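All the exercises in this workshop are built on plain-text protein records. A record pairs a protein's sequence with a compact description of its fold. The structure tokens are whole numbers drawn from a learned vocabulary of backbone shapes. Once this layout is familiar, the rest of the handout is easier to follow. An example says more than a description, so a record of this kind follows.
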Amino acid sequence: MKIEVMEDNTLVLKEAFNGVKFETDEGHCIWVYLRDDTIEINVLPKGELVPTHNWWRVDMQAGVIKSLSETK
């Protein structure tokens, strides 16, 4: 993973193929995974350990986010 910092202190993560976890103080989480040509997002509300129904894929060409279950 490569980490850069922009002039406004925004973090830029490159080649983050292992995933990045964002977590609120309340325990809500979002995991972001870079794939070869897309991004996958796992939304994990507080208390939920393994959400099999809450995966999303970003279609970079169309500019839309769809449920991963819709893209198979």
